[in-house]
Structure formats: C-alpha cells, structure tokens
Amino acid sequence: MTQASLPTAPLPPALGGVHTLLATPAGPISLYQAQADAGAGSAPVLLLIHSVNAAASAAEVAPLYAHYRSQRTVVAMELPGYGLSDRSDRPYTLRLMTDAVHAVVAHLRALQGGAPVDVVAVSLACEFAARASVEAPHSIARLALVSPTGFSGTRRRYGPPGGSRGVAWLYRAVSRPLWSQWLFDTLTRPGVVRYFLKRTWGAPQIDEALWRYCVQTARQPGARHAPLHFLAANLFSADVNALYEALTCPVWMSMATRGDFTDYRGRDTVQGRAHWQMHRIEGGALPYFEDLPSFAARLDPFWVRP
Q1: 198-228 pLDDT per residue, tens
Q2: How confident is the model at residue 70 (pLDDT cuts 50, 70, 90)?
Q3: Which stretch of DSSP H or E encloses residue 192?
Q4: What does the DSSP 8-state code read for residue 164?
Q5: Closest of 250, 266, 261 to residue 286, by C-alpha
Q6: What pLDDT score was predicted for residue 36?
Q7: What pTM did the predictor assign?
Q8: Which three-class secondary structure string do you get for 92-133?
Q9: How many separate domains does the chain show?
Q10: Residues near 177 by Cβ (< 8 Å), separated by ≥ 6?
Q11: What pLDDT, on the 0 to 100 scale, is given for residue 8?
C-alpha cells in the first residue's frame, strides 16, 4: 500500500506563533510569526528559510525560531511546494522560489516601514536568498547561510544568469504519472527519511520530532511535486558562484564538519572578502539542533556587528 492510499491526517503547524497564508505571485505562502518580547529592542525582522529536500518544512528551523523569538520579531516561511504553502502541480523553478522570497521580504519590509530584513537560509535555500539579495540589494540587511550549497567540488559555476542545472530527461523520467507517486512514496518511507537525516547529521542520533514531522509532511496531497524538481536538479543554480560573488550585504556562513555536506572548497572565490564571515561549526548540516547555545554564540554577534 502506498502513502497515497493511506488516510492522510491534516498537517499541523510546524511552529508556534501566528500562522498565516500570504497571497503572492508564487501562490499562497505559509508564514509563522512570533512577535518580539516587550523591551526586546528594534532589530529588523528576522526571516528564516528552510532547506529543500523530499520532506522539507519550517520544522527544520524550529530551534532558531525558538531562540530568536525572545529577542526580535521572527518569521519562518515555507517555500512553494512545502509545508502548508501551495503544493499544486506546476513547474517548481529557481524563479518561483526566488519570487516567493521576494514577496515575503517585501511583505515584512512593509510591516516595518520599508526597512530591510535580516535572513537566515539553510542549504539550497541559500541560493534563493542570495539571488533575491542580488536582485534587490537593499531588501536584505544581513544574510546568514547555514550549510550553503554551491561551494562543493572544484568546479565553479558561472552559467547563464538565472539558469538551472536541471536535467530535462531526468525530470521527465521521475515525473511520469505511472510511477512518480510510487517513487516519492519510496523515498519518503519513515526508514528512508531517517537514513537521510542521519546523513545530514553525520551521526546516528537525529532530532526525533523533526523526523516525525518530515514523515507527516511527506504524506500530504501534492507533496511530491516540488521534490521531483529538486531530484532532477531543477532548483540548483547554474550561476551560483556568480551569485555569491555579487552579494554586497554582510554575509555569515557556517560549514558542517560531519555528514554529507562538509565540502566547501569553492569558498575560495569569496573567502577573505571584508563583508564575508566563515565559521566551521562542529556538527552536521543543521548544527543548531545539536548545540543551539554554541551555534547562537557564533551567529548572534553577526546581527549587531558594525
């Protein structure tokens, strides 16, 4: 029996706070917002953007959301095709993902009188956030990249602006109606989700609450559409090095020491630039799940550094 034939429970919110659906050109986007505590100061709104995989959601940034909600207004978005955002059957492209980030940033700027926002993006979402910052340089004040993609290996990518690394024949193969649901169900079986989270952590101990939510979100209607584009590399930027090199805002970057995401040889194209900070943080690709105080001690000063 496939997941599609199982009874599907409604997906609960991934985070606390106020949940809304923001109407955007990229479709309804799920937002979680927690207001700053009284006396927390006037820091810019902080936007958190989860990674992209077969079962992604705002649950991936839960520790950061909990940490910063006591200090400032914090908002976590769910990208198109994930969580409680629009999961319709449509092309999931770099343009769609970047436009979703643009729309949320514009919405948050309007709430604070037009001031730019701070952003934390995780893994592949770092490419979308970087593109949004390059296209609208004054919209993002500071950008933190957690385990960003685009720095692995020795090849540098300066492809056509806005182009993707997608493989057309591979997407046609994985998206065929005859087996696309079966393939996605196979990739998101509880044991398989656990396997990939262990590779993300680089250790057998993972966050069990995140695992449970990943399994649940992957069973929702339309959950396969965005991940199949991800599987075919349609969401990876062919011009990723050009994007990172074009960033003008202050950038903070963390690099994992364990798991599948430890290759950052490509950082040499931006390392040493005055507005870039790089930190090798002990742990897997989501180190704030493992040791939030240590992670925050490295990231927090970035928000107030002159």
Answers
A1: 999 999 999 999 999 999 999 999 999 999 9
A2: confident
A3: helix 190-201
A4: B
A5: 261
A6: 73
A7: 0.95
A8: CCHHHHHHHHHHHHHHHHHHCCCCCEEEEEECCHHHHHHHHH
A9: 1
A10: none
A11: 62
Report the distance separating Cα 31 and Cα 225, nearest Å: 20
Residues 6+ apart with CB under 8 A from 47: 74, 75, 76, 77, 104, 105, 108, 117, 118, 119, 120
User: Which strands sit side by side in the sheet containing 140-146, from one edge to the other?
Assistant: 18-22, 29-34, 74-78, 46-49, 117-122, 140-146, 251-256, 276-281
Query: How far is 160 from 245, CA to CA, in rounded Å?
Result: 15
Tell me the helix, strand and coil percentages in the chain, rounded to 5: 40, 15, 45
Beta bridge partners of 278: 253
Dump pLDDT digits (tens) for 86-122.
Answer: 999 999 999 999 999 999 999 999 999 999 999 999 9
Contact (CB, 8 A) for 250 and 302: yes
pLDDT at 165: 96
Q: Which domain holds residue 61?
A: 3-304
Distances (CA, A) of 25 to 45, 57, 70: 22, 20, 32
Q: How large is the C-alpha radius of gyration of the chain?
A: 18
CATH of the domain at 262: 3.40.50.1820
- List the one residue out of 222, 286, 270, 207 whose CA is nearest residue 88: 222
Q: Is the dihedral of CA 217, 221, 224, 226 positive or negative?
A: negative
Q: What is the mean pLDDT of residues 222-242?
A: 97
Query: In angstroms, rounded to a whole number, what is the distance separating the alpha carbons of residues 160 and 196?
Result: 31
Nearest Cα to Cα of residue 64 among 49, 44, 83: 49
Q: Are 294 and 254 in contact (CB under 8 A)?
A: no
Pairing of strands 276-281, 140-146: unpaired
